[in-house]
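Narrative of accomplishments. A recurring question from our advisory board has been how the design workflow behaves on a single, concrete structure rather than in aggregate. To address it, we present the structure tokens for one chain from the evaluation set, followed by the sequence designed for it. No filtering or post-editing was applied between the two.
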């Protein structure tokens, strides 16, 4: 009986080591700024969070998420932001941004994923030129 209790206690303690904290967002926005995208988020809860990692997936990344920014946790209620100026826009593509929390114990969790559709700068300029020609 003692042996079973010891084994149960060990399993409980090792299982607790794999538990991670929590993250809750109050806001997550992606805004286009000229040729770039500004990604911002605000947290309501950051329990045991070491850092946040922002990932981007595009047709140019072979549809794989690639880390584009890492920021240490600043605590609950803080606003975070990043200007993604490295977007190669071609045609009418879709970008996916994913925010991941990395906890103190190394566990990673996808907190939010959002998509953005855009029209390339060249297409916008061409459309603007056409409109100007017929005015």
């Amino acid at each position: 009986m003692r042996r079973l209790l010891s084994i149960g206690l060990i399993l409980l303690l090792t299982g607790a080591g794999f538990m991670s904290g929590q993250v809750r967002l109050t806001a997550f926005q992606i805004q286009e700024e000229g040729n770039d995208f500004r990604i911002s988020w605000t947290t309501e809860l950051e329990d045991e969070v070491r850092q946040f990692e922002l990932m981007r997936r595009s047709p140019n990344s072979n549809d794989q998420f690639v880390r584009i920014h890492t920021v240490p946790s600043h605590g609950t209620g803080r606003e975070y932001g990043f200007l993604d100026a490295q977007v190669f826009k071609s045609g009418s593509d879709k970008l996916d941004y994913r925010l991941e929390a990395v906890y103190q114990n190394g566990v990673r969790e996808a907190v939010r994923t959002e998509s953005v559709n855009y029209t390339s700068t060249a297409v916008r300029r061409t459309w603007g030129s056409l409109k100007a020609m017929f005015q």
